[in-house]
Amino acid sequence: MRSKLVKATAISLFALIISGCASSDSDEVQLSKQSATALYKQARTSMELGNFTKAVQTLSALDSRYPFGAHKTQVQLDLIYSYYKLDDSANALANIDRFLRLNPTHPDTDYVQFMRGLVNMQQDSYLFHDMFNIDRTDRDPTYAREAFADFEKLLISYPNSRYVKDARQRMLELRNRLARYSIQVAEYYMKMDAFSAAVNRAQLVVETYPGSDSTKRALEIMIEGYGELGQQTLQQHAQEVYSLNFESGE
Questions:
Q1: Which UniProt keywords apply (predicted)?
Q2: How do residues 140-185 score in pLDDT, each as one tens digit?
Q3: Three state DSSP letters for the chain
Q4: Local confidence band at 125 (pLDDT 50, 70, 90 cut-offs)
């Protein structure tokens, strides 16, 4: 009885696999029969409905079959956005870099540069942690640095872009994120009595991320660290900066 059940299950699974392959092949055949205009219309409909998996499939077919078609540039832009919506950072970045390499003077390069920042920012975020409000400022900030650099490049290269305002706001968020990470490192050094390393990291926060929400704590670490190191002049200077910025209104 058990062997019959196993055999029946295996047959069912095989049938499902065959059915899936047949469906996939049928979709590809269907796409191959359509014109560039029809394919693009279908892709846009999928995007509007939020079906970005289907949109990527159609756009990729369009990009492959009509690489020099009338919609070629918009297809590349839509692929970037669709991969971003699917959280497929690797393919999004690959298409972004390809677009910037092949279309350096295109009027939408500011948008693509902005999307590069969004994709890297997306890689830095943790949806699970965001949902449950879990503080993970100790995670590797590589993607946050990349995103900050992407937005900074947008501001420098395209100062009149419509995306500048949004990029600036995101840079503020990233600045705070990077500053908090450095504070975490400085706090660790303080616990290990590595006071020189701690004050150096805290000073980096003050100088590299001015105005961040970690500036106050950075100065506190510098005051304490310089005190432990017996560097009274530097401690006094840090105290003066702290008093000027955080005690004058208290």
A1: Cell outer membrane, Lipoprotein, Membrane, Palmitate, Signal
A2: 899 999 999 999 999 999 999 999 999 999 999 999 999 999 999 9
A3: CHHHHHHHHHHHHHHHHHHHHHHHHHHHHHHHCCCHHHHHHHHHHHHHCCCHHHHHHHHHHHHHHCCCCCCHHHHHHHHHHHHHHCCCHHHHHHHHHHHHHHCCCCCCHHHHHHHHHHHHHHHHCCHHHHHCCCCCCCCCCHHHHHHHHHHHHHHHHCCCCCCHHHHHHHHHHHHHHHHHHHHHHHHHHHHCCCHHHHHHHHHHHHHHCCCCCCHHHHHHHHHHHHHHHCCHHHHHHHHHHHHHHHCCCC
A4: confident
Q: Are 224 and 201 in contact (CB under 8 A)?
A: no
Task: Identify residue 247 by its one-letter amino acid code.
Answer: E
Distance between CA atoms of residues 178 and 209, nearest Å: 8
34 vs 168, which has greater pLDDT?
168
Give the CA count within 13 Å in the CB-facing half-sphere of 154.
Answer: 28
Which range is least confidently modeled, 1-10, 96-105, 121-130? 1-10
pTM: 0.80
Give the rounded percent of residues in the chain with a pLDDT score beyond 70. Answer: 80
Spatial separation of the C-alpha atoms in residues 104 and 151, rounded to whole Å: 17
d(CA 200, CA 206): 10
Closest CA to 93 of 107, 83, 106: 83
Cα 105 vs. chain centroid, distance in angstroms?
Answer: 24
